[in-house]
Design goal:
Number of helices: 10
Strand content: 15-25%
CATH topology of the largest domain: 2-enoyl-CoA Hydratase, Chain A, domain 1
Distance between the termini: 28 Å
Number of strands: 9
Oligomer: single chain
Helix content: 40-55%
Structural class: alpha/beta
CATH class of the largest domain: Alpha Beta
Radius of gyration: 19 Å
Number of domains: 2
Amino acid sequence: MSYKWITYALENGVARIALNDPQTMNAANPDMGYELVDAFDRAADEARAVLLTGEGKAFCSGGNLAAAVEILDDPKRDFGEQLEVSLNAVLVAIKRIDMPVVTAIRGAAAGYGAGLAAAGDIIVMGESAFFYLAFRHVGLVPDGGATYLLSKAVGRVRAMELMLLGEKLPAAKALDWGLATRVVPDAELDDAAMALAQELASGPRSLGMMKRMAWDALDNGYETALDIERRSQREAGRSDDFIEGVKAFGEKRKPRFKGR
């Protein structure tokens, strides 16, 4: 697939995927969704970590409301259709890809973009970046998985504050609330996020298992989590990276993992 709405590049085991419609601050649309899903499928075959970001001044400004003007006179209009068609599939792809995903946020992560940013396994924000669930200001409800991801990350009460009041959540506060992994100076965002992604890409096969286990733990009970840990430990222990890790430990050197 050729890409119009995103860019894709592979560097040292990291697939850098960037939303690429700066004129709309990377507003999401169905075609962008198709391209993102294709890019994550591609990354699954050729990368060991993913860096998801946005070109220009913003990460993602949300759904493209300009397109909504054309359907306002239709009493059967369905603004949620674009979610079913492709945009929800992007979020599922991020969760299911068997490797860590770093989201690098500059400027606005608004509307659908807030959920997309929060779907990352590692979330890096520039100092001027912010989450913005602006849905109430246009009479819509949160999408992009935000109702689930934010409630899990910051708790129901804080999630309600973000959704019901529709106020911006600046990077420093997002870090304090546990919605960001790190906050860095704006000028350092790209390099800092890529360095983290490359560190993950050089890690063992078990990182993908850790990701899967953490996602599963959001919805499973304690005993189910124990069972998943047991089965995943067997899988990890049979990997080549485990053999390398033990040898490196005994030889007092840094391991050279291959991701298998």
